[in-house]
TrEMBL record:
Pfam families: CSN7_HB_subdom, CSN7a_helixI, PCI. It is found in: Cytoplasm; Nucleus. Residues 199-246 are annotated as: Disordered. Belongs to the CSN7/EIF3M family. CSN7 subfamily. Residues 1-130 form the PCI domain. The gene is Cops7a. This is CSN7A protein. Component of the COP9 signalosome complex (CSN), a complex involved in various cellular and developmental processes. The CSN complex is an essential regulator of the ubiquitin (Ubl) conjugation pathway by mediating the deneddylation of the cullin subunits of SCF-type E3 ligase complexes, leading to decrease the Ubl ligase activity of SCF-type complexes such as SCF, CSA or DDB2. The complex is also involved in phosphorylation of p53/TP53, JUN, I-kappa-B-alpha/NFKBIA, ITPK1 and IRF8/ICSBP, possibly via its association with CK2 and PKD kinases. It comes from the Eukaryota. GO terms for biological process: COP9 signalosome assembly.
């Protein structure tokens, strides 16, 4: 059963199988090499298998490729741009053509996503699946998540502070705008009232203006009559003086 699981396409997580009591009992039985092989597929790499190959069951070609896929996933968790030289060494492949074929196969199996940079001789990984986690690694993961949460809280606090400052600035600008608009409105009213008063003081009714032009101003007739009377008196006086002289 374990060999079938290790060879089956699409199965890259083995934690549930390892947690089965019947499987865990294999660790202390004559089938311990099979159990050890299962743990390598769950947590290890192809290099780990080669280091213990003498004490482990042989792998089929499909199992080798699957373990190599998982080894690439392990490398991708540490570095996103993996040089071809590192991959060739870790996967024990003979040439770049075999390496690229293996990576393309892993991409089609949805084990990872990325691109092969043939010019720079490296694999650029954008995404890779997660692997099984050892129990002793849980504390490290928990600590990492706690640190991440604390970092998120710090960032969130900073964002809230910036939002608060932005709102205060917005309120100040709105208050200033309202004040300016109020002052402009009052100034317009003042200018309008002043202009209307000046226009009322300087403007006249056209008919009244023509009448004033036709009719003399009060006292003008009296002054003209006085001038005529004075002139007549002057003429009479002159006549008397002329008669006496004769």
């Amino acid at each position: 059963l374990i060999h079938q699981v290790l060879e089956a396409p699409g199965i890259y997580v083995f934690g549930e199988l390892l947690d089965m009591p019947a499987v865990r009992e294999l660790a202390d039985s004559e089938f311990s090499p099979v159990f050890r092989l299962l743990t390598i597929f769950a947590y290890g790499t192809y290099a780990d298998y080669l280091a213990e190959a003498a004490n482990l069951p042989p792998l089929t070609e499909a199992q080798k490729n699957k373990l190599r896929h998982l080894s690439v996933v392990t490398l991708a968790a540490k570095i996103k741009c993996i040089p071809y030289s590192v991959l060739l060494e870790q996967l024990q492949l003979k040439n770049v053509r075999q390496l690229e074929d293996l990576v393309i196969e892993a991409v089609y199996a949805d084990v990872l996503r990325g691109s092969l940079d043939q010019r720079n001789q490296r694999l650029e990984v954008d995404y890779s699946i997660g692997r099984d986690i050892r129990r002793e690694e849980l504390s490290t993961i928990t600590r990492t998540l706690q640190e991440w949460c604390q970092g998120c809280e710090v960032v969130l606090s900073g964002i809230e502070e910036q939002v608060s400052r932005a709102n205060q600035h917005k309120e100040q600008q709105l208050a200033l705008k309202q004040q300016i608009e109020s002052e402009v409105a009052n100034l317009k009213k003042t200018i309008k009232v002043t202009t209307a008063a000046a226009a009322a003081a300087t403007s006249q009714d056209p008919e009244q203006h023509l009448t004033e032009l036709r009719e003399p101003a009060p006292g003008t007739n009296q002054r003209q009559a006085s001038k005529k009377t004075s002139k007549a008196k002057g003429l009479r006086g002159s006549a008397k003086i002329w008669s006496k002289s004769n």
